[in-house]
Amino acid sequence: MNPNQEKPTQKKPKKNSRRRPRKHPSSSNKTEGRNHKRKNNQRNSKWNRHRISDHFMKRDFDSREKDCTTCTGSLRISLGLVGIIEALRAKLNQRVDILTGYYCSDCREKKYGIKRDHHHSGVAADIRVNNMSITELFLVAETFPEIKGLGINFDDNHVHIDTRKEDERQTWVEKDEEWILLTEENRDQFIIPTHNDESNDTENTDS
Ligand SMILES: [Zn+2]
Ligand SMILES: [Zn+2]
């Protein structure tokens, strides 16, 4: 009685030329069993498909509306924008939350009605960082010359960045439903660098 004893067969694939198992409906289970050791790689490659950079997934930038007929088009994300957000993240050493990324121009009109919006081109994101005021975030974003559109939104507590194709940067404030272009003159009214500790809000006693 030796049902389990089999001659060593030559069936065993010694060399698997297909390094990356492709998804094939009929062989997916087999593939998974045979390539047990590659499970990690498989998972990574699956993850890679949804990933757009080291720390961000495509869906992080996807603000398309399910019930919008024109949002059904493909997702547009500028890699330049993604690179800048990665750079911001590295500089701050903190997670950057993307509140809004790409949506279609219809959505823009219906929901936001902002004229100078670049979300529908895939080059804009509204961002926020935990435990950091939007003013601080705004000031850091300002140090990136690639950001050509930079807005600070006090109504929704976020910073808008975009990489529109312009030479000059445009900077603005959104506050009380108003859109105000920032100039040298009015800047100090809105961009007030805060010290980290809000409770330690002492008056300035310069003498
Ligand atoms: Zn839409
Ligand atoms: Zn925005």
Highlighted features:
binds zinc ion; alpha+beta; 6 helices; Muramoyl-pentapeptide Carboxypeptidase, domain 2; 207 residues
* SSE order: HHHEHEHEEEEH
Q: Work out the strand percent.
A: 5-15%
User: Measured on Cα atoms, how large is the radius of gyration?
Assistant: 25 Å
| Small ligands present | zinc ion
Helix count from the secondary structure assignment: 6
Percent of residues in helices: 25-40%
**Strand arrangement in the largest pleated sheet:** 1-2-4-3-5-6
Poorly predicted regions are 8-14, 23-33, 198-202
The top level CATH class name: Alpha Beta
Structural class: alpha+beta
Give the rounded overall mean pLDDT.
Answer: 81
Biggest pleated sheet: 6 strands, mixed
Number of strands: 6
CATH topology: Muramoyl-pentapeptide Carboxypeptidase, domain 2
Written overview of the protein:
The protein has a single domain, classed as Muramoyl-pentapeptide Carboxypeptidase, domain 2. The protein starts with 27 loop residues before the first helix and ends in a 17-residue tail after the last helix. The protein has a 6-stranded mixed sheet with strand order 1-2-4-3-5-6, with helices on one face. The protein is built from 6 helices and 6 strands. It has helices at residues 28-34, 39-50, 79-92, 105-112, 134-141, 187-190, and strands at residues 97-100, 124-128, 149-153, 158-162, 170-175, 178-181. A hairpin with a 4-residue loop joins strand 3 and strand 4. Residues 8-14, 23-33 and 198-202 have low confidence and may be disordered. The structure holds zinc ion (2 copies). One zinc ion binds next to helix 4. The site of one zinc ion has 5 residues, from strand 2.
